[in-house]
Design brief:
Length: 430
């Protein structure tokens, strides 16, 4: 068991992981591969480097969580906190570059993308596990895990390539927000049936209404309330030092990000939804006050901890040979189901045919930490004398989440370059 918490040890852990992550990222970027892939793979390396009785995790004094048993030690928990903050601030930064009119302009397409991107993966995941072991609870949670989309992964690729203004990017971001709400509904239904054998329709309806109202209210505030408030702030700031005014706005923006993230969590939504909506509140004035540059420095430090922690969840030794075939089938279906479902939604919804179904389909593939969270919930729920997500299936979900997270950025960068060219600056300026 790890020793008691020491601040000095935490600094060593963060230093080692950060240096490894940014080094791997730099190496991968030199070969034209998204750096986050290197950060995830270095996480897999850290978690699985064992030589005899020695392991890198042991040397760093990190104890990883054991599904259904414990949540890891303090060092791992603190690493997770930094990782969560990293992805929250990433989505806040993406929100700063997304205006309400841009998001609402793709609303119909995004809804179709999200809906088909939920239905098809769930059905395929449910069907495969039903055929594999016939356990309906295992099948439901596998379907729920395959529904997930990790917008943080795709958002980083889109941001790095400076293509946030492209129609495909707007569809992906909007669809991911809707996907989070739909995924929450699926998870609530599946978890409720596993715990009680029935669905709490009143509770489900309440959750849907609250979640949708939260998003609508923030969007209305962006379009109606923010212009008035911004006008008052600008008049107040006249005659004052502009730099000082910018710092004040940054502090306010950061506070709003944390507040809306907390509110989203209270409503059982992902914190990144609240962070993204918070960014949209300040989108019209982000450049004026230099908010993107300031947030860029914050995310540059925190985000590598998010990607490396995703990789660290992969325990290669726990995957049994008899489950390799199932793992391969699940990974293939996870890729195809999102690609086909979301691509089809794009083709149906985009009447002007301005968007590439290929790009949107690939952009919605990564499951990342979201799929893992669903599996972790399943491992803690007991039904029919056992967890609704067995240890072997949990490992498969983690592997599926990491593989889809690794391949999607590489594929996404290639299809974006194929359509819009290699010059990121030109894509951003148009």
């Amino acid at each position: 068991m790890a020793a008691e918490f020491e601040m000095g040890q935490l600094m060593i852990i963060l230093s080692v992981l950060f240096i490894l992550a940014i080094s791997a990222s730099a190496i991968f970027k030199r070969f034209g591969i998204p750096g986050l892939i290197g950060e995830i793979l270095i996480g897999v390396f850290v978690a699985n480097l064992v030589i005899g009785d020695w392991s890198l995790l042991g040397a760093l004094d990190i104890v990883l969580p054991v599904p259904g048993v414990d949540d890891g030690n303090t060092y791992w928990n603190m690493l997770e906190v930094l990782a969560e903050l990293g992805v929250v601030f990433l989505l806040f930064t993406v929100g700063l570059e997304t205006k309400v009119k841009d998001l609402t302009s793709v609303g119909r397409t995004a809804m179709l993308v999200a809906t088909l991107g939920v239905i098809i993966p769930f059905v395929l995941g449910y069907a495969v596990i039903t055929l594999w072991d016939g356990n309906v609870y295992h099948a439901m949670f596998m379907g729920a895990a395959m529904v997930a989309t990790s917008v943080g992964i795709t958002a980083q690729v889109i941001k790095d390539m400076k293509v946030l203004n492209r129609p495909e990017s707007r569809i992906i971001i909007a669809a991911a927000v809707i996907d989070d709400i739909l995924g929450l509904i699926v998870l609530a239904v599946v978890a409720g049936m596993a715990r009680t054998g029935s669905i709490d329709m009143f509770g489900l309806a309440e959750m849907i209404i609250v979640s949708v109202m939260f998003v609508i209210i923030v969007i209305l505030f962006c379009s109606k309330g923010v212009p008035r408030i911004a006008g008052k702030i600008r008049r107040t700031a006249e005659g004052k030092n502009k730099k000082r005014s910018g710092v004040d706005i940054f502090v306010v923006a950061l506070s709003v990000c944390l507040l809306l993230s907390a509110l989203a969590a209270q409503m059982k939504l992902a914190m990144i939804v609240g962070a993204f909506l918070a960014g949209m509140i300040f989108a019209d004035h982000a450049k004026e006050y230099g908010l993107e540059k300031k947030m860029g420095s914050v995310t540059a430090f925190l985000l590598p901890f998010f990607f490396i922690s995703v990789g660290m969840r992969v325990d290669l030794s726990s995957l049994k040979e008899e489950f390799l075939l199932l793992a391969a089938v699940i990974i293939i279906l996870a890729i195809l189901s999102k690609y086909i479902g979301c691509g089809l939604g794009t083709m149906i919804g985009d009447r002007k045919k301005e968007s590439s179904a290929n790009i949107v389909g690939i952009g919605m593939i990564p499951r990342g930490e979201v799929g893992i969270i669903v599996a972790m919930i399943g491992i803690k729920i007991i039904a029919d004398g056992g967890p609704v997500m067995s240890g072997d299936l949990f490992t498969i979900v983690v592997l599926m989440s990491v593989v889809t997270t690794i391949i999607a950025p590489f594929m996404l960068s290639r299809v974006f370059k194929k359509k819009y060219g290699n010059t990121q600056e030109d894509a951003a300026s148009e």
